[in-house]
Amino acid sequence: MKMKSLQRLHVTKRRRPTCSMVISVTWLAVKTVFTLVMHLNQSCNSLLNHTNSYLMLSETETVPKMASLPKEPPEDPKKESFWMPGKYVNTVHRTEHSYQACNDLMACFVERAKVEKQYAQQLSQWSSKWKSIVDSRPLYGSLMRAWQCFFTSTERLSELHSSISQSLVTDEGQRVKTWQKKTFPRKIFCGFKESYDNNTSFSRAQKPWSKKLTKLESARVAYHKCCQKEQAAMDKEKQANENSEMSPEKKQKIMEARERATEEKEKTRERYEKMLEDVSSYTPRYMEEMEAIFEQSQEEEKKRISFLREVFLSIHSHLDITNNESVKAVYSELHDTLMAINDQDDLKWWKNNHGPGMPTDWPKIQEWLPPVKKLNRKKRDQKRKESRP
Hints:
This protein is mainly alpha-helical. It has helices at 2-15, 19-60, 89-135, 141-183, 193-242, 248-319, 325-339, 343-354, 377-387, and strands at 186-187, 191-192. The longest helix is centred in the last third of the chain and has 72 residues, at 248-319.
């Protein structure tokens, strides 16, 4: 039992690390990390030196450039034509774009109305500030009246720009909003009614022609494949004829394969030509139906353009203050006041109020007058009673 206890105690002591062991292990770890950092630093310096050497070499020698990627061929504009399948969508979306243009128009001139309002406020603030300052200055006469006329004119202009701001919001903004609601009716779950109707009509008119065009494209692809097969068969036949070691039987088989390829090509070409004839014969009817739908869309767009033209002209009439009678009157009165500045009148006024023209009591003999005796209160009251009737 004592031996087992001693063994357990020995094992327990051996498992518990001492302070010196911890210090040595820690020092070993730090030393290892430091060594790794030094190696990493040397590697980075070596890589940096190689990079600098390469850059210096590239400055003295011409480094071959990587071949640029081939540019994608530009899209054929004919494939984006109105007549191609599905390309009528731009006309369908024009309704949505017109609706959005109305929103942008209202937002644009609401912002302009804010500018006009802010300008009116700034004019009023400027006039109030400087009117009080000028009134306290020693300017006088017609010059003073001319300066003050700028402030009265500014107040009238401030009122004008406030009315412009109000007109842009209440008159034009409300006008466009009402027209927009009336002109762009919606269908439930279908967006704008006009867009839905145009899309349905275009799709219905284009569907037969689009099917014929799809068949034509399939015939074209089949024809081109047969042409490729025939070309490959012709090349093979040419090589066989030039090969003297090939047996006549094998040459005969190659020639028969080429003939079958030519025959198949002719058949596919006939189908291709037939499909093309079918498409070409249907094209006039297709164009007529598509143009009729397009013209209906044009008529609606014409109405929108005419309305927005009237709105723009109306906005112009609000903003063009050069032809405004009130503005003309303001500046006309201001000009008349400025032209009424008269130096002679101002100088005469100053002379009479602050100069030699002022009335003066020149010195003269003044006779002595005895002072008036004041009556006491009792005598005043008695005299007042006596004077009563």
